[in-house]
Amino acid sequence: MFGVLGSFGPFRMQTMTIRHRLSALVAVLTLAGCAPPTPEQQFLNDAYAALGGRSRIEAARHLTIEATGVNYNLGQDLIPDAATQTFEITDYQRVIDIANSRQRVEQVRTPKFAYFQGPQPQKQIQGFDGEAAFNIGATGSVTRLAGRAAADRRADLYHHPLQLLRATLDPATTIANVRATGAIRQADITLQGGPVLTLAVDTAGTPLSISSRTYHANLGDVVVTTALSDYQDVSGLKLPAGFEGKVDAFTTWELQASRQSLDGDVGDLSIPAGAPAAAAPAAPTVTAEPIGQGVWFLAGQSHHSVLVEFSDHLMLIEAPQSEARTQAVIAKARQTVPAKPLTQLVITHHHFDHTAGLRAAIAEGLTVITHSGNRAWVADMARRPHTLQPDALAVTPKPVTVEGVDGQLEFRDATMALTLYHVAANPHSDTMLMAHFPRQAILVEVDAFSPGGQYHPYAANLLENIQSRKLAVDRIVPLHGAVATMADLAKAAGQ
């Protein structure tokens, strides 16, 4: 017995060893299968579940949102940081082709304030198709976007949780930097080729907001955020019906969905055939026309400036449109009167289209003269970071000097007399200035009266300001349009 058992002993022990090893392997595999998900996986799993599950998200093909709401007049309101002027948004429809990265947004925008383009509704159509960003005009003409504008349009497509979470199913999409602030969790999601979007969710995984970074000519580095609320069931998915858009802390639009649908017929969202290529930015053109002793009209394109010569220095009125435009204007000013230094810049008002060159002027060492209500705003614009697209002031930092104007401020020497006046009760900007040259009987103004336009909602106010101060004016030099007369202004004011 023992002999028999002895002869099989080593085999039996080997068998038991193999079994133990197999058991250990099974245990390891079992434990691996039960390992907790990574923070990134858990973040996405919670978000998938909150919307209705990964499989339902993956199955969605098209989303249509109909809504109403408001647009705010960012950078164009009565005073800096104000949000009093709005456009009513009607006939809003956003259609997303989820699988093919296409989107079409249509809306009708109606101003609810005295708008220089008139009170009539304006139809807007904005599209994105793969990598093509475009706008469709009222006549059907297509304008293709390029550069930063096209990248922003692509990012906008993913400012919806369904489109963004669908993109996370792509192996090329990465998620990182999961963090929590109180009950809010955030993660950075990077799409192949960009952009990087930050998704914020609550404890249950419900998306609260989507953010991305971009560059703004006036504001510099900004964060664009879409806040999400009022989740509703849409064919088995939980989707937001409330939307709010922000640029940094500035609210720019609000929408409330009235109807949402999935996988209906959305038509052709591709860019129209024959759409032209994106146009290269037009090079600034600046002409210098003498309009009085020591005064030049620096015109060209849609926004103009004025050069003023004093005994020992030069003054520039307005730094509009862009850094490139303002640099071209400064170069023309120095070319026109090369023997004297350019030391001062007058900003007529804070609106973005008239101050996009402000930082370029500060970089040149110019003292900024503006209404006292704009002083803090100018200082803020000067210190805002511009790292995504470094401008002249970012490359060559300089301190800013700001001189404020309240009711009026006179500049006079042996060769020149100029008074800046506040345009009181102006419905376009509460911090508007106009410049009067008593010896030349010239008034320089902008936006209050734009000769050649069809609608002049601010002309009567400008005329009242001139008459109440008993200013001698033969010619009006607008920074939009051609030089005009008092008779032209009186006619426009009487409309």
Radius of gyration (CA) equals 31 Å
The pLDDT mean sits at 93
Oligomer: single chain
What is the third-level CATH name, the topology of the largest domain? Answer: outer membrane lipoprotein receptor (LolB), chain A
Range of helix content: 10-25%
Strand content: 35-45%
**Strand segment tally:** 26
| Named CATH architecture of the largest domain | Clam
Unreliable spans = 1-16, 24-32
Distance between the termini: 124 Å
Shape verdict: elongated
- Major β-sheet profile: 13 strands, antiparallel
Structural class: alpha+beta
Q: Report strand order across the widest sheet.
A: 6-5-4-3-2-1-13-12-11-10-9-8-7
Break the fold down into its secondary structure elements and pairings.
Layout (H helix, E strand, L loop, with lengths): L1 H32 L5 H13 L2 H6 L2 E11 L13 E12 L4 E10 L10 E8 L2 E5 L5 E3 L2 H11 L3 H7 L6 E8 L2 E7 L5 E6 L5 E10 L3 E15 L2 E11 L2 E13 L24 E6 L2 E5 L5 E5 L4 E4 L5 H14 L5 E5 L11 H6 L3 E5 L3 H9 L8 H4 L6 E4 L2 E5 L4 E6 L10 E5 L4 E4 L13 H10 L6 E4 L5 E2 H8 L2
Parallel strand pairs: 17-18, 18-19, 19-20, 24-25
Antiparallel strand pairs: 1-2, 1-13, 2-3, 3-4, 4-5, 5-6, 7-8, 8-9, 9-10, 10-11, 11-12, 12-13, 14-15, 15-16, 16-17, 21-22, 22-23, 23-24, 25-26
